[in-house]
């Protein structure tokens, strides 16, 4: 199989590319600089058509689009929000425009998305059938997915990967958190009752590869573990995994002062389940938080 990946230098992209190559697949990386290595193609995600020669997709079977600025990269100023939207929506439109001009387009586009679609669900469990929520992230994800859909008109099967919090000791949020916990600075956030929809990096990569091969699946798919946990449960399990107590609490008002609107993502609750993955027969290696933390922090 030949797979093209945007965002291949990120946490998920690098893990996916490595797993594919180990199994004999050929990986083409779309990079935003001049190509330096075999298998790299330059693209400009802010160009209307990506700055890509459509022939670059000749022979490509699948495209995985993971490009996007980090959500938690700083307070949500007006400029930061514009960057978050452009890095996802504009880049997706550019990629779809290039794919639509390919003589023989790839079979499938697996396009990044997020559980931010659902907004704050409180204690209510939601699956892919739930409507979009409210707030900045819900609006961003709604437009992000809409930007990917026109690829279906060019004959591609389009899957939107609604990803939860990805847990990995190699990067993302878990590494810095584990270091804090090891120094005895682990803390429950706000009330602790808010749900976190998470997935191990191992399962995320496996799910993406599973979806590449499932021709009957298109549209949104939740990439989350089957059992969301509350912030209090997550804090207790992470403390147990690093063998240190987590006695601190960060009050909600402190977070709101320090992070502004972004604090809503830490204080909000998302209880999202992977209904479509489970119905398709995907087997999670780490369905529970304790096992996932033990595996990813090894």
Topology:
Blueprint: E1 2-6, H1 11-22, E2 26-31, E3 40-42, E4 62-65, H2 78-100, E5 108-114, E6 125-126, H3 136-148, E7 157-163, E8 165-167, H4 174-182, E9 187-189, E10 195-196, E11 198-200, H5 201-212, E12 219-223, E13 229-230, H6 231-242, E14 248-250, H7 252-259, H8 263-267, E15 271-272, H9 275-279, H10 289-296
Parallel strand pairs: 1-2, 1-4, 2-3, 4-5, 5-7, 6-15, 7-12, 8-11, 9-14
Antiparallel strand pairs: 10-13
Quick description:
With 298 residues, this protein is of the alpha/beta class.
Label this structure with key terms.
alpha/beta, 15 strands, globular, seven-stranded parallel beta sheet, two-stranded parallel ribbon, Rossmann fold, 298 residues
Number of strands: 15
Percent range for β-strand residues:
15-25%
CATH superfamily of the domain at 2-164 and 201-224 and 274-279: NAD(P)-binding Rossmann-like Domain
Topology as a string of helices (H) and strands (E): EHEEEHEEHEEHEEEHEEHEHHEHH
Helix and strand composition category = alpha/beta
Overall spatial form:
globular
Q: What do we call the CATH topology of the domain at 2-164 and 201-224 and 274-279?
A: Rossmann fold
Integer average pLDDT: 93
Describe it for me?
With 298 residues, this protein is α/β, with parallel strands linked by helices. The protein has a domain of 193 residues: NAD(P)-binding Rossmann-like Domain (Rossmann fold). It has 10 helices and 15 strands. The strands form 5 sheets. It has a 7-stranded parallel β-sheet, sandwiched between helices. It is globular. The chain starts with a strand and ends with a helix.
